[in-house]
Task: inverse folding
């Protein structure tokens, strides 16, 4: 496929993060939420450097060794240019937000703006709370700065001057022990709320820290931050278990080479050169002169010290009538398939499913695969309880879930100690499916209760990520879920799936078959349509097939949150393709596919994006929605998002991220309307059913 028909995923991802920054720039968004979107944008940028930029850098180095040019250098230049543009927009937005906060009587001040009363308070706070956490590191020729600096932290690089002599120190900002934002006591007006960043408290108290140890004429502190390559190699030692290999791999990440060095633009040039040399910053790395504050990801937790209206009003999570109408989750699932949609629904239903299974006398086994899970997880504790109660519990833990490896290693050890069978998946494939299978013995028969979802079993992210979760007693689906678990443990076996779409088994074939059916219908002059909702669309084979479908006359609608390599608006290739992206208070995360299929409406929810890695290099699962009521519910929710006139952006060839124009249409904010839609459904009463009522 011609490169003109394909947008590089790195540039497309930066376009997505630009949409996040738009939320911080949007004056209709409550000001505290705008501050938090700055934090989300910054956190995303950090991950982009760790993963995307680092991978691009490795590719360039490998190409140089092979005397090969695949366009990676030009792509890196384009990426760095876009990053610089976004950084400038970010800095401008930050300044504007600080002024807007001040107009709301919330002041984020620096050390030079402290009143006399606040100066005294800050010195006491530093002595009582901060000082114990600070041990300056003196920079010498022997200092291994690459090994010393931590990826997730901000540092103050301190220059101490005495006549012509200079000394340099590094101070780690102790945000793991103290809040980044400190609320100062009232000083005069009670309506005025004043905050100061921990960095500036340390700056103000440098004399208290260094007096008696150094003689100096002047001392100054400049903020720095370093981002490392997030990739690592796993040893091939045969006698070393995967758990031990992963632990070693994470240690490699802690000392990996930097890919970005950010420093205060006021830092003296001699100091910049010294630090860059100590960090081995190369021409391929991104060295950025920025503002005096780094690690803006901490702004995600910016406190609201003002009125309630300064942040989004709460959308209370809903109870599910299909579960609440029954005494047990098993009776509820036996009565009908149940579809939850987080965070609009309460996550406790999945936790309750596992809790009841942990002590139900009829339950014989529980199987689940874990990709990401909360640090304090009721669900994981229930699995341990189940093992203590004599249930056969199997937990497939993906140790290579990026940035969650350490937490997953900890859970693996805890589960193993409790007698749970822990499986580390397939060596060459990440297990990314969201499966839970409970087996009960009913009337001397083995009966499956299945959960197939689009998101992780994670209590925390379920409050901010939108995701579907299907609960079903369909025995054919249950048997296929069982076969997925068998495949994970016995990857040499081959299973056929009639209902589930399973990667890497048959996802590409099944997707192509579904798309080709619509193409054939369009060629025959019949109605043909495809609606897709994914996080990312970057697989060239799928993109090519969608171009073919568009040429044939298939009406294609897509909601893509993140990367989109398909180029919209190319005449003759995608005249029938409409793509939008929605960024709002919740992160859009579900993967949903709707095919017209001659009016039969085939609807799937899945764990996989339309990316090559998800189709060919991971264990992923998609499930059809068979219940007509639930199928229509999913279709309605998709239609509601396409009707969004507030938070929907148009994805075009130039990646301009223009908002969908409302014109004379109603003002529709789809996430709020989704809550109202589901609330209306859940408020319809169902008759309370006890066990003997259940067939």
Result:
């Amino acid at each position: 496929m011609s490169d003109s028909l394909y947008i590089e995923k790195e540039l497309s991802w930066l376009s997505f993060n630009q949409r996040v920054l738009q939320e911080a720039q949007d004056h209709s968004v409550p000001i505290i939420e705008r501050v938090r979107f700055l934090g989300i944008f910054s956190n995303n940028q950090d991950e982009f450097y760790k993963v995307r930029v680092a991978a691009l850098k490795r590719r360039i180095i490998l190409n140089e060794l092979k005397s090969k040019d695949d366009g990676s250098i030009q792509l890196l230049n384009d990426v760095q240019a876009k990053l610089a543009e976004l950084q400038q927009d970010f800095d401008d937005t930050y300044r504007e937000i600080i002024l807007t906060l001040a107009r709301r009587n919330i002041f984020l001040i620096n050390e030079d703006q402290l009143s006399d009363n606040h100066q005294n308070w800050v010195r006491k706070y530093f002595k009582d709370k901060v000082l114990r956490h600070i041990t300056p590191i003196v920079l010498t020729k022997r200092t291994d700065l690459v090994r010393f600096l931590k990826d997730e932290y901000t540092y103050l690089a301190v220059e101490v001057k005495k006549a012509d002599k200079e000394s340099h120190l590094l101070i780690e900002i102790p945000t793991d022990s103290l809040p980044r934002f400190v609320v100062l006591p009232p000083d005069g007006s009670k309506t005025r709320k004043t905050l100061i960043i921990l960095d500036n408290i340390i700056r103000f108290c440098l004399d208290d820290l260094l007096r008696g140890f150094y003689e100096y004429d002047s001392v100054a502190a400049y903020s720095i931050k370093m981002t490392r390559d997030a990739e690592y190699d796993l040893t091939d030692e045969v006698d070393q278990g995967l758990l031990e290999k992963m632990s070693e791999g994470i240690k490699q990440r802690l000392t990996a080479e930097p890919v970005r060095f950010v420093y205060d633009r006021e830092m003296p040039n001699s100091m910049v050169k010294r630090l860059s040399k100590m960090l081995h910053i190369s021409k391929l790395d991104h060295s950025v002169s920025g503002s005096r504050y780094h690690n803006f990801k901490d702004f995600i937790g910016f406190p609201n010290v003002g009125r309630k209206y300064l942040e989004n009003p709460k959308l209370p999570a809903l109870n599910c009538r299909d579960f609440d109408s029954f005494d047990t989750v098993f009776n509820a699932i036996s009565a009908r398939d149940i579809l939850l949609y987080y965070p609009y629904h309460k996550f406790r239903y999945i936790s309750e499913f596992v809790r009841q299974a942990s002590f139900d006398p009829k339950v014989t086994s529980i199987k689940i695969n874990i990709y990401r899970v909360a640090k304090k997880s009721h669900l994981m504790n229930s699995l341990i309880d189940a093992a203590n109660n004599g249930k056969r519990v199997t937990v497939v833990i993906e140790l290579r879930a990026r940035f969650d490896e350490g937490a997953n290693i900890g859970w693996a050890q805890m589960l193993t100690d409790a007698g749970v069978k822990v499986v580390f998946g397939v060596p060459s494939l990440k297990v990314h499916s969201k499966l839970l299978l409970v087996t009960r013995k009913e009337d001397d028969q083995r009966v499956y209760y299945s959960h197939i979802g689009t998101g992780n079993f994670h209590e925390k992210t379920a409050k901010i990520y939108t995701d579907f979760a299907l609960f079903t007693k369909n025995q054919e689906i249950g048997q296929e879920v069982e076969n997925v678990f068998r495949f994970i443990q016995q990857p040499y076996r081959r299973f056929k799936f009639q209902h589930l779409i399973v990667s890497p088994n048959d996802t590409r074939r099944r997707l192509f078959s579904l798309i080709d059916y619509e193409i054939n219908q369009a060629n025959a002059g019949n109605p043909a349509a495809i609606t897709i909702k994914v996080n990312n669309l970057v697989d060239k084979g799928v993109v090519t097939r969608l171009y073919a479908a568009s040429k044939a006359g298939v009406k294609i609608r897509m909601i893509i949150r993140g990367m989109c390599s398909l180029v919209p608006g190319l005449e003759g290739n995608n005249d029938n393709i409409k793509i939008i992206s929605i960024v709002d208070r919740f992160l859009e995360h579900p993967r949903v596919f709707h095919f017209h299929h001659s009016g039969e409406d085939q609807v799937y929810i899945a764990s996989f994006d339309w990316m090559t890695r998800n189709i060919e290099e991971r264990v992923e699962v998609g499930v059809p929605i068979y219940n007509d009521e639930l199928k229509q519910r999913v279709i309605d929710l998709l239609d509601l998002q396409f009707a969004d006139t507030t938070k929907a952006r148009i994805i075009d060839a130039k990646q301009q991220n223009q908002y969908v124009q409302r014109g004379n249409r109603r003002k529709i904010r789809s996430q709020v309307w989704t809550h109202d839609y589901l609330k209306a459904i859940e408020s319809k009463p169902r008759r309370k059913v006890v066990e003997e009522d259940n067939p």
